[in-house]
Amino acid sequence: MSEHEPERRTIREAMTRLLDGQPVRSDGKLTIKSLAEEAGVKRWILTHRHQDLQAEFRDRIATHGTDPEPVRALKERVETLTEENGRLREQLRETRSTIAMLERHIAVEALESNRSPAAPTPARKLRPVPEPVQPAEEPPSDPKG
């Protein structure tokens, strides 16, 4: 038994945990950095001393084919939050546009109401403020297509 055998066994056990999606010490990503964290060794040990284990890990990742469940779930959550962020940013742009329009209407009304009393103005009706256009949830489907 070589002096590095316990270290190699620890690294292989860490590989199995990462590939099974059950990390204990790392973030669960399928990277050499995460493998080193999971095994409790410095990264240089994998990249210099146990290069064969590094290659074995890469081969097992290729065979395994997908991210572990925790990583996959986080990626889906990031995608969902990114879409929601885009929707909220668009809503914020529309709201700011509406506010700017209302500010202009208020300024015009204030200027018109402060006009010189020397020039009589005819009685005016108040104008309704236009309703902001609400974006459609989904674009209307083309009946032809």
Structure, explained:
With 145 residues, this protein is mainly alpha-helical. The chain folds into 2 domains: 5-64; 68-113. 61% of the residues lie in helices and 0% in strands. The chain contains 5 helices and no strands. The chain has helices at 5-19, 32-39, 43-49, 51-64, 69-113. The termini are far apart. The relative contact order is 0.08. The model has no long low-confidence stretch (mean pLDDT 82).
Keywords:
145 residues, mainly alpha, 2 domains, 0% strand
Write a concise synopsis of the structure shown.
The chain has helices at residues 5-19, 32-39, 43-49, 51-64, 69-113. It has 145 residues and is an all-alpha fold.
Task: Annotate the secondary structure layout.
Layout (H helix, E strand, L loop, with lengths): L4 H15 L12 H8 L3 H7 L1 H14 L4 H45 L32
Helix pairs in contact: 1-2, 1-4, 2-3, 3-4
Keywords: Coiled coil
| Structural domain count | 2
Given the C-alpha coordinates, what overall shape results? rod-shaped
Number of strands: 0
Structural class: mainly alpha
Tell me, rounded to a whole number, the average pLDDT.
82
Uncertain residue segments: none
Helix fraction bin: 55-70%
How large a portion of the residues is in β-strands, by DSSP E? under 5%
Give the helix tally. 5
From the alpha-carbon coordinates, what is the Rg to the nearest angstrom? Answer: 32 Å
Topology as a string of helices (H) and strands (E): HHHHH
Distance between the termini: 71 Å
Major sheet, described briefly?
A: none
